[in-house]
Each structure stands twice: as C-alpha cells, then as structure tokens.
Protein: Glycylpeptide N-tetradecanoyltransferase
Amino acid sequence: MVDSNKSSGPPEETPSHNPNGNAPSESDLALDEITGKVQKSLGLEKRHKFWESQPVGQFKDLGDTSLPEGPIEAPTPLSEVKQEPYNLPTMYEWITCDIDSDEMCTEVYNLLANNYVEDDENMFRFNYSKEFLRWALRPPGYFKSWHIGVRVKSSKKLVAFITGVPARIRVRDEIVTMAEVNFLCVHKKLRSKRLAPVMIKEVTRRVHLENIWQAAYTAGIIIPTPITSCQYWHRSLNPKKLIEVGFSRLGPRMTMSRTIKLYKLPESTVTPGFRKMGLHDVPAVTRILRNYLSQFVVAPDFSEHDVEHWLLPTEGVIDSYVAESSETHEITDFCSFYTLPSSILGNKNHSTLKAAYSYYNVCTKTPLLQLMNDALIVAKQKEFDVFNALDVMHNDTFLKELKFGPGDGSLHYYLYNYRIRHTLKPSELGLVLL
Ligand SMILES: CCCCCCCCCCCCCC(=O)SCCNC(=O)CCNC(=O)[C@H](O)C(C)(C)COP(=O)(O)OP(=O)(O)OC[C@H]1O[C@@H](n2cnc3c(N)ncnc32)[C@H](O)[C@@H]1OP(=O)(O)O
Structure:
C-alpha cells in the first residue's frame, strides 16, 4: 500500500454520546460541536452504507470504552454459512485464481499493474511482480479459494480481484486466526458501481467456510474504523532520479550536488557478522523475532514455517540480513525489506521506481540506527531508488536521524469483527502487511 490518500492523521478518541441519557448540558453542547468539527475534518461524518452494515468498529462508538474488546459477532454454525457465491451483475462471473498457473498469474499481474493503487496525483502506480504475488498469496496453509477474480462472461477478461491469506495475529493476549485481505482491485472502467462490497462479502463468505471469523487489512482511505493510522517515511537512495520523476523536490537553498552528497551512503556495511539470512538461521530468527514482537499490542504470531516463508530471502521479492556474533555464532540482530516497484506514469526518461519497504527488524546487540543504516547500504548496493518505512514498531527511533522524510499520505490499519477499545499509537503496532 502506498500513501494514496492525504489525510490529517489518526482519529482522536472523541466521546460522542451522553452517558446519562439526560438532556445535554451547555458544556456537552460545546463538546458536541468540537466533536463534530473533529469528525468532519477527519471525514468521519460521511455515511458508509456498506461498512455501517458490517461487524467492524463504528465511528459513533469511538471513545466508548465500555464496549468489550474482542469479537463483535459470534461465529455462526458452519451449516448456516451461505453455500453459493453472492450474485454478480449478469455479465460477470466468479473465478478462483490458480496463482500457480503462469497464465493466470500474468492476468492478475496485468490487472493490478494497470488498475491498482496510485498516489493522489496519479504519478505512480504499484507494480507488484509476479514472483511477489506468488510469495504474498501462498504462505503456509493458504487457501486457493481465497484468491478470487471476476471475469466478463463473454470476453473472459479479468476485471476484479481480491485475496485473503491466513495468519495468526495476536491482539494483547489472544491469538486469533485471521484472514489478511489484500489486492482488492476493480478495473478503472467499472469503478463506483458498488462492486467492491460484493467482492468483500464474497471473500468473507469463503473465509467463513474455513471457520475463520476475523480479518486484518490496510487501506489508504478512512472507513469504519482504523485501529491505528500510520505514516510512510521515505529515504532517498537515488535523489537525482527521485527529483527527475517528481517523487521528491529539491529543498529550498539546495542544489542537486548538495542533495546527492546529503544522501550519500558508505560503500559497505559496518555491523560485524552482517550477512544474508540462510535457511539454517530460521530457528534463531524466529526466536528473536517472536520475542521482539511480544511487546506490541497487535502483531503476528510467527512459527518457524511462517518465518521460512515470509523472511527467507527470495531474489527480487524479500531481502533479509542477520548479524552473527563471531565468538558465539549467535544471531543477535535481523533486518528485512521487500521489493515493490511502482510504475512511473508519463515520464519520458524513467518507467519504474525501484522501492524497498522496511519489513521486520530486530536488534538485541547492534543499535537499531546502525542496523537500519546497513539496510540502507545494501538497498543502495542493490540499486533501489528509495527505502520506505512506516512509523510502526520502533521505527520512529531511526527515521529522522537516517534522513527519512515524511510522506503525504496515511496507511490505516483495520480489523474485521474484532473490537479494540482504544485507537493504538503506530508504535504499538507490530504488523506489516504487503
Ligand atoms: C472474516 C473475514 C472478513 C474478510 C473481509 C475483511 C474486510 C476486507 C476489506 C477490504 C480490504 C482491502 C485491502 C486493500 O486491498 S486496500 C487497496 C484497495 N485498492 C485500491 O485502492 C486499488 C484502486 N482502487 C480500486 O480498485 C477501487 O477503487 C476499489 C476496489 C478499492 C473500490 O471500488 P470502487 O471505487 O469502484 O467502489 P465501489 O462503488 O465498488 O464500492 C464503494 C464501497 O467500497 C468501499 N471501499 C472502497 N475502497 C475500499 C478499500 N480499499 N477497502 C475497503 N473498502 C473500500 C467504500 O468505502 C464504499 O463503501 P461505503 O463507504 O459506502 O460503506
């Protein structure tokens, strides 16, 4: 997800109802007025016909700490889950996408490459590679039936897509099996026809059929109701190109050569024992990662199998590095980033922006600042143009110092059918979705 939507930040917890049920006092009225203004500035006053009908936190309940944390609705008996797919307009049909098939994977790739997330100014569009899609969609225990497409019956053209993959997510002390929902896309020519709610209901039905009742997802837009709202930060690695394509601007009183010098990085990494992660590192990485993630309110519950899938390096998809102690051969630190290029729309000289996205990073010995500087150095060696990171986990401790600049959009995190009492700070979140 890129910063696709400008917005002014996380919703504050604004008490919006009168707990005594009495006539509002003068001070309540003043508060209501303030609340109304806050809601308006955040877009919370908008009606959401679909989302208001779903088991998700509702804006009107923001700040109501009397509601219990946990599932909003109890599971229904499996025999009561609808057996047939939802109705589509008659021209269209559902398909289950076999992402193993090269032909199918290419169709999905093309739909997304032409119709998926763009920035606000329509200058860049995500360009997830086929290898990336295969990695993202086939984690341990994945369900083929959760890779859902919509075709035009007559031409067989793929025009919409949505996916889920299973994940165990810990919320405080509870480990909840969820679907991570991603890659919701409707062809540009079919927008605003209420197809998205049907896609979401169909993926929900197929998730329910596996006896799973919760989901996690992110979006650039505000809908009911974010558990937290994060910001992307960007570290220029190739400032000249970033300026040429309009990704960044030359700062006031800055020349190109001073800017290049500002972002220059050392040729090689400095952390002793810093090397690419290998299969034999999986147990140690799992151990330090699980220990690190245990401090966040919401975080994945990774097994060794999950770590092997999500963190073992795959060329052009996911890069991971460890620091191994020369004396004890212990793995003390770990960092990772995934590869997600964006197409540059309408530039004569450049067609692709090569971006690395910070994934999971853990330090037990090396200062995080130094480890992340080494991550920047290897990303530069691999010819990435920019290194992006959200302000989640402990990332805010290195962003400014390592010359990341704030992006102009937010990424909102959501849970489906799971209520969290308070809006979280980004630093309380230990989850990165792709
Ligand atoms: C238990 C298991 C549960 C599993 C499900 C968990 C929930 C998963 C939820 C999905 C997680 C996805 C995670 C990602 O992939 S986020 C990436 C989303 N994709 C893009 O931004 C790509 C470019 N855009 C498009 O393809 C379309 O604009 C999409 C498909 C996004 C909407 O199509 P369209 O523009 O033609 O609109 P419509 O007329 O059909 O429908 C309008 C309704 O849809 C609501 N809407 C719009 N965008 C989103 C959005 N990003 N998340 C949730 N809802 C969204 C909208 O508020 C409105 O409802 P309401 O405001 O009136 O109520």
